[in-house]
Structures are given as C-alpha cells and as structure tokens.
Amino acid sequence: LSNFANRPFKITNQIFNGTFNTVEGAFQAQKIGYINNKVEQQLAKNYLDKLQNTTGSEAKTIGTKLKGLDTDRWDANSSKIMKDLIKQSCEQNPDDLDKLLATGNATLTHTQDKGKWGTEFPRLLMEVREELRGTQPTQQTGTPAFESSFSTERQKEILSNFAAKHKMSEEQALKYINEAINTKGEEVIKKLNECY
Fold first, then answer.
1. What would the pLDDT profile of 152-195 be if each residue is shown by its tens digit?
2. Residue 151 and residue 64: Cα distance in Å, rounded?
3. Model confidence, pTM
4. What angle, 0 to 180 degrees and rounded to 10, lies between the N-to-C axes of helices 71-92 and 94-101?
5. Which of 7, 18, 165, 171 is a good FRET partner for 154, with 20 to 30 A between their CA atoms?
6. Distance (Å, rounded) from C-alpha 60 to C-alpha 51?
7. Quick check: 109 and 122 in contact, CB under 8 A?
8. φ and ψ at residue 33, rounded to 5 degrees
C-alpha cells in the first residue's frame, strides 16, 4: 500500500498526462505545476522522465531538488493531490485495491514518517478505501487480510501455533483469523504478532 511501491498507473490531470511507476513519482511531478518562476518550472520539467520511471525513494529525493516551489499553494493542495493519485493507482491496479480493501475497517498507520505524512497518508488511504469499497464485487479474488499482513514464514508460524492452541485445523484457523482481521483490523494483527 506504500506510495513508494512499484505499481504503474496512468494519470490525467491539469499538470501532466503520463504513466508513472509509483504514486510518489507522480506526486513529486505534480510539484512542477506549483513552481511560479517559468525558468525554474522549465528546468524542473527535465526531471519528469526520471520521476515517471524511478523508484519511490529516488522520486522523493528528486522532489527535494525542485527549486522555486510555491510552498503555500503546494501545502494547501498536496493532500488532495496525494489522495487523487492513490485512488487512481488503486483503480488501475486491482490487486493493490484488493489489498487495501482486505484491511477491512482497520486503522492504518504510517509509522516510518514522523512528519505530516505520518498521520495524513494513512488517513488518505482509509478515505480511498471507503470510497472504493463499493466498486469491487463481493467475492474478492485478492490476497486475504492475513496473507497481506505477514510474511509467508511468519504466517505459517502463527497459523500453526494458533490452530494448535485452539484445537482446530489450520484451514479453520485461517478462516477465523481472516474474519477477525477484516472485522477488527490492526488490533488483531498486533495480538497475533504478540501471542503467536
């Protein structure tokens, strides 16, 4: 669900039309439209190809190099821009939309960022999740909640321990765990990590 994840999508808006490998690349490219000085804006456009094709981390670094950004205008619009890009990316990448929807009603977090985006990014993800919830068929084919929350090795360990402790088959345990995660979200994931 990361904005740094490689999931190509096409954007069409007032500033650019094109395909970006990451939401972060598209987000940083949008800054070019918020540069008031035409010379600086033209120089910034030289980064466009790189922003379309690079990693999320590199895109963020490029974004810090853009000169002449009208920070007041950018700050006033950046959350809406990020939300629109997340939504477009999810709409064009059904597997990622399935992963987002598999979080159920969980409160999402973004603990690696201690600034604005530490709270803003998960809030936007949850808004997009709510808006796109009705767009998927009721029988989803994406990755269930449990699988998208833990590594394969950790899944096996948790599933085995949970099934043994509660005297049920691993298949029953998996169904129970997925239902619990979809209902209570992050709380269940945390408990599974702590107890099993």
1. 777 788 878 877 887 877 777 777 777 777 766 666 777 776 77
2. 33
3. 0.68
4. 100
5. 7
6. 9
7. yes
8. -70, -10
Tens of pLDDT along 88-113?
A: 999 999 889 989 998 888 898 887 77
Tens digits of residue pLDDT in 23-38: 999 999 999 999 999 9
- Token pair recorded at residue 172: 């029953």
Instruction: Return the CA Rg of the chain.
Output: 20
Q: What is the dihedral of CA 122, 73, 87, 102, to 10 degrees?
A: 0
Chain-centroid distance of CA 74 in Å reads: 21
Query: Residue holding tokens 């394969």?
Result: 152
Q: Give me 13's structure tokens.
A: 């808006």
Amino acid at 78: S
**10 pLDDT tier (thresholds 50, 70, 90):** very high
The one-letter code for the residue type at 58 is E
Write down the mean pLDDT value for the chain. Answer: 85
In whole angstroms, give the CA distance from residue 28 to residue 22: 10
Q: Is 1 exposed, middle or buried (0-12, 13-18, 19+ CB in 10 A)?
A: buried
Do the bridges between strand 17-20 and strand 9-12 make them parallel or antiparallel, or are there none, so unpaired? Answer: antiparallel
How many other C-beta atoms lie within 10 A of the C-beta of residue 168? 14
Q: Which two tokens stand for residue 134?
A: 């009705």
